[in-house]
Automatic annotation (TrEMBL):
<keyword id="KW-0812">Transmembrane</keyword>
<keyword id="KW-0472">Membrane</keyword>
<keyword id="KW-1133">Transmembrane helix</keyword>
<feature type="transmembrane region" description="Helical">
    <location>
        <begin position="196"/>
        <end position="215"/>
    </location>
</feature>
<feature type="transmembrane region" description="Helical">
    <location>
        <begin position="80"/>
        <end position="100"/>
    </location>
</feature>
<dbReference type="Pfam" id="PF06182">
    <property type="entry name" value="ABC2_membrane_6"/>
</dbReference>
<feature type="transmembrane region" description="Helical">
    <location>
        <begin position="137"/>
        <end position="156"/>
    </location>
</feature>
<protein>
    <submittedName>
        <fullName>ABC transporter permease</fullName>
    </submittedName>
</protein>
<feature type="transmembrane region" description="Helical">
    <location>
        <begin position="250"/>
        <end position="270"/>
    </location>
</feature>
<dbReference type="InterPro" id="IPR010390">
    <property type="entry name" value="ABC-2_transporter-like"/>
</dbReference>
<feature type="transmembrane region" description="Helical">
    <location>
        <begin position="162"/>
        <end position="184"/>
    </location>
</feature>
<feature type="transmembrane region" description="Helical">
    <location>
        <begin position="47"/>
        <end position="68"/>
    </location>
</feature>
Amino acid sequence: MDRIGASVLTISPGRPFRASLTTFGALVWSGFRRYATYRQATIAGSFTNIVFGFLRCYVLLAVAAGAVGNRPAGYDVEQLATYVWVGQGLLAVTGMWGWAELADRIRTGDIASDLLRPVPPVVSYLAADLGRALHGVLTRFLGPVLVGLLFFPLVTPQRWQTVPLFVLSVLLAVVGCFGCRFLINATAYWLQDARGPQMLWTLGSGVLAGLYFPLRLLPEWLTVTLWVATPLPGLLQTPLDVLVERDPPALQAGLVALQAIWAVLLIWLATVVQRRAERKLVVQGG
């Protein structure tokens, strides 16, 4: 083994926390490397995001031109342009669509091998998804933002706390989005085929997360209900509003705190559902 430079990851009982961090980090790196191999798909995805960025940006700018004071729902032209182009980049970072690995493994029975591993499925899939998100930041996020800077006036944050709050908000959005997608995929434990819930997620998440238009264009009572009663605005709307400084600092921090609550709750729900599904599989003899 020493001659070929191979190494085996061992877990020491005396240092379980360090071993857990090492294992989690290795899973994150594996997720990054996995998506780094699909270079052509990355380029094609970035190009698609840029094309739709132009379409969305001109539509929202047309809305602003017809609004009173050119400020629909309190957004000026620069804030709307920033909302669109950063949102196009974040779409690949949060990974709202396209992940059906868990549902496919449940359908084929390959999930049984995941249950034999020392790392719980929720933790292993979360680590791999964080690696995917890191790859998205370095590849799919920067392209649309740079194009937006070239063709449109974008907002420059004026408050010192905006940038760290935005980074934290993006991280929470990635975790929250993973929790939603895991729960959608986990319906395959009971339905055997999760394509129906996945289709509903695809149709509804983009609208209710604020991808197609800012949720603040909706009636205020509906916007508040969506923000408090669902985790969806925290997937895109919250980090974008934080970046464009749509709200005062206190409200910015409050929205991120609400986002953190939803992220923790979603991961807890994913863990509970996974444990219940494992008991169901034992009852069925799977």
